[in-house]
Amino acid sequence: MKVLITGARGQLGRALAATAPEDAILHTIEIDDCNLTDRAAVKELMEQVAPDLVINAAAYTAVDKAESDEDAARAINADAVANVREAFAGKLVHLSTDFVFDGTSSRAYRPDDTRKPLSVYGRTKAAGEDHLAHGDVLVRTAWVYTSGGANFVRTMLRLMQEKPSLGVVADQIGAPTWAPGLARTIWGLIAADAAGTFHHSDAGVASWYDFAVAIQEEALALGLLASAIPIAPIPTSAYPTPAARPAFSLLDCSKTRELLEDGYTHWRTNLRRMLLEEKALG
Questions:
Q1: Which of 121, 145, 239, 264 is catalytic?
Q2: CA-based end-to-end distance of the chain
Q3: Checking phi first, is residue 27 left (phi over 0); if not, alpha (psi -120 to 50) or beta?
């Protein structure tokens, strides 16, 4: 099985390559290999590679910057998906986000729930979803992180070493996602010949404040931090950003777990695994 992975240098792209099944022949690309917003370039790429499957992990993820850069966000998050879908006749696995929801639900969002994005990022990701065809796989996820990447966990570790105290938003609720776990779910869906919309995040519930407190506690236990600093819960209003964010974006992953029969892993367990890897990286 020849698999083309876009966004190969991103957190998920690297995790997909690291967890790929033995029978997968990977062809990985980044923006400098092929501009996915260029229709002709995508057509040429598909003719050259002739993949059996495409996993689109490329995305414009600068949530706040997108508010003033909508054309670029739409080109990457929506138009590029259309280009891939037009040029490729096989199954497309596409990654999307919890930001397609408005955060007003009183329960975890199911795959078939109505989308109502609050931001340019969310709207462009929703537009990308609309280009998928029957038989494709859409995987929504949230709060992705991994060792060695640019993410909330590593930012918190740095700030906890540099700052005497931190204030972290406590009224945005969801669940973190360890990229290798997400990658294994994607490969599992492919192996099951799944089609349709699926959600994946780690089990449990957290605010960004809860996540930050856990990062400090686990990092202290592993010797990644020398001492603790005070962490205060703050409201979203105390940390204004250009883009509106859903206050509640927990994803209901029961459909995914039932199909794969692989159980649930709590986000704190995966956080510990990531920090162990981070420690090994030095």
A1: 121
A2: 36
A3: beta
The answer to whether residue 121 is catalytic is: yes
The domain that holds 74 is classified in CATH as 3.40.50.720
Tally of domains within the chain: 1
What are the tokens at 60?
A: 């414009």
C-alpha span between 174 and 253 (Å, rounded): 12
Give tens-digit pLDDT for 33-80.
889 999 999 999 999 999 999 999 999 999 999 999 999 999 999 999
Sign of CA dihedral 99, 117, 244, 72: positive
Within 8 A by CB and 6+ apart from 172, the residues are 103, 207, 208, 236, 245, 246, 247, 248, 249
Question: Which residues form the domain of 236?
Answer: 2-281
pTM of the predicted model as reported, rounded to 2 decimal places: 0.94
Instruction: State the DSSP code for 131.
Output: T
The Cα 21–Cα 138 span in angstroms is 20
- Amino acid (one-letter) located at 218: E
Pairing outcome for strands 177-178 and 91-97:
unpaired
Q: What is the 3-state secondary structure (H, E, C) of 81-93?
A: HHHHHHHCCCEEE
